[in-house]
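Quick check before the chapter quiz. The format below is the same one you will see on the exam, so make sure you can read both the input and the output lines.
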Amino acid sequence: MATIWEYRSSPHFTAAERAAFDFALAAACVPNAVAPEVQQALRDHWSDDEIVEITGVVALFGFLNRWNDSMATTLEDIGVDAGSRNLVHTGWAPEKHGS
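Here is the expected output.
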């Protein structure tokens, strides 16, 4: 997790994982930013069934993130701890969520 935001250059990730991360970031944008080259890179490494699963995870977590942020859902301690460790550079703070 320590190098997730450096996935494009980190040796910890394969080309297939980099393609999936590029796709996930583009698919999570509003408006959707999945360009043909992002889609092709994904198809170079993943089957149609795997792409459906990746897309499902991106869509589900996009929904849950928007729901929980909009509703200011109270977070469990493990989520607050993870957010405090991994999202500090984004300006994220747990206060909105009753923590």
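If your answer matched, good. DSSP finds four helices and no strands in the chain.
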